[in-house]
Amino acid sequence: MTKVAVLGGGQLGRMLGLAGIPLGIGFRFLDPSPDATARAVGDLVVGGLDDVAAAAKAADGADVVTYEWEGVPAETAVALTADVPVRPSAWALEVAQDRLVEKTMFQGLGIATAPFTAVGARAELDDAIAQLGLPAVLKTRRGGYDGKGQAVLRDAGDADAAWAELGRVPLILEGFVAFRRELSIVAVRGLDGEVACWPVVENAHEGGILRVTRAPAPGADAALQARAERCIRPLLDELDYVGVACVELFDVDGALLANEMAPRVHNSGHWTIEGADTSQFENHLRAVLGWPLGSTAARGASAMVNCIGAMPDRDALLAIPGAHVHDYEKAPRRARKLGHVTVCAPDADALAPRLASMQELVRASADG
Ligand code: AMP
Predict the structure, then answer these.
(1) Hey, which of 35, 151, 286, 307 has its CA 20 to 30 A from 177?
(2) Looking at residue 367, what is its pLDDT?
(3) Would you say the CB of residue 70 lies under 6 angstroms from ligand 1?
(4) Residue 162 in contact with residue 180, Cβ under 8 Å?
(5) Distance of CA 250 to the CA centre of its chain
(6) Rounded Cα gap, residues 76 and 93, in angstroms
(7) Could you tell me which residues are beta bridge partners of residue 149?
(8) What's the predicted TM-score (pTM) here?
(9) CA-based Rg of the chain, rounded to a whole angstrom?
(10) Residue 129 CA to ligand 1 centre (angstroms)
(11) What CA–CA distance (Å, rounded) separates 58 from 43?
């Protein structure tokens, strides 16, 4: 049996398992929690992701090791590489874990970003503000996610408070982007270097957390798709990347700026499970195993809504035509992603009323 070891056992791991089981793939996950949701679809080794011995136990006998969380210490990936292929590589983790390294690589590859500069001391923050102007966004170089570890500076008086909040670690200051909307592009690169991209999607965030993805992005044409692909293809080639990755983009009246990359399957690609010929999860597995990739074409129009803090009424959701419910079986907690729902339709016009019904149900649930 083909065996895949996955570092991390959250919902992304669970959905990798759900995609791989029909292909005859067996899974072993490493996660610090004995309740990790991926335990439903494979064996679970309980241990920290910085615990090289536990990671080696998870990887033992596997054909390939992959990960479903970009916070996996690169050292863990490096330590395993001697015995088993780790895909994507530890290098991709290192780049994605440091916003300065990541944005510097983007720019070196001709991928446009907001202007940015490193900030390592309080005086450098004043210099950075003088250089980039205000408003600007101060972010920790490492460890931020879902809008955490960042502060918007609107006038010079905000600098002290932002420094007090974030200044204990290395930072980056970015020019504030007055974007029209947020987009993302999810792509897969095979072991032979073949790259395939799913249609560019539009993402709506609230409180720093993704709420809704529309696929394809409303109004997306071939030119926008090509611009979005130019923000990810050179990156995947540069990293000799194997697997699925995502680049989050700001759409500034059609011009795209790259914000960050995720070296893994991504929340904005969940719609591909039902809405594309091949899902991001299946193609990730095909890529890391060196198998042929599947078509990334969309089947009509889809939308995905995250269920945050509470699951909506299941029966009411299932009564919506084209609706698919994904319950991660996680304990409810404020601001926690507990599941998602995807709705599909032949085209955007048919999708709209279905999505409206779905959003009403999600909103009606406690924390939605
Ligand atoms: P990030 O942690 O970089 O993904 O940022 C979280 C969210 O903050 C993004 O999805 C944007 O909505 C917003 N944001 C991040 N960077 C900027 C920026 N330079 N200008 C304006 N908004 C930003």
Answers:
(1) 307
(2) 55
(3) no
(4) no
(5) 15
(6) 11
(7) none
(8) 0.97
(9) 20
(10) 17
(11) 9
Would the CB of 218 count as within 6 Å of ligand 1? no
CA neighbours closer than 13 Å in the CB half-sphere of residue 44: 19
Atom of ligand 1 nearest to the CA of 148: 2
What band does 168 get if pLDDT is binned at 50, 70 and 90?
A: very high
Average pLDDT value over all residues in the chain: 97
Cα gap 94→92, rounded to integer Å: 5
Indicate if ligand 1 lies below 6 Å from the C-beta of 208.
yes
Ligand 1 atom closest to Cα of 145?
Answer: 2
Please tell me what DSSP assigns to residue 86: B
Residue labelled with tokens 């601001």? 335
Amino acid in position 160: D
3-state secondary structure of 185: strand
Residues 327-354 have pLDDT tens digits of: 999 999 999 999 999 999 999 999 999 9
pLDDT at 368 over 80: no
Determine whether the shortest distance from the Cβ of 133 to ligand 1 is under 6 A.
no
**The pLDDT of residue 119:** 98
Ligand 1 contacts CB of residue 321 (under 6 A): no
- In this predicted model, what pLDDT tens digit does every residue of 274-297 receive, in sequence order? 999 999 999 999 999 999 999 999
Residue 174 Cβ contacting ligand 1 at under 6 Å: yes
Query: Ligand 1 atom 5: the closest Cα is on which residue?
Result: 147
What's the whole-number mean pLDDT along residues 211-223?
97
Give the separation between CA 38 and CA 9, rounded to whole angstroms: 5
* Spatial distance between the Cα atoms of 15 and 38, rounded to a whole number of angstroms: 8
Mean pLDDT, residues 186-199 taken together: 98
Residue 254 pLDDT: 87
Longest dimension (CA), the chain: 61
Cα–Cα distances in angstroms (integers) from residue 168 to residues 122, 139, 164, in the given order: 10, 12, 8
Ligand 1 pocket, residue 102 CB under 6 Å: no
For residue 321 the two structure tokens come to 């035509």
Tell me which residue has tokens 């959905």.
15
Contact 327, 341 (CB under 8 A): no
- Cα–Cα dist 22/15, whole Å: 12
Distance 81 CA to ligand 1 centre (A): 33
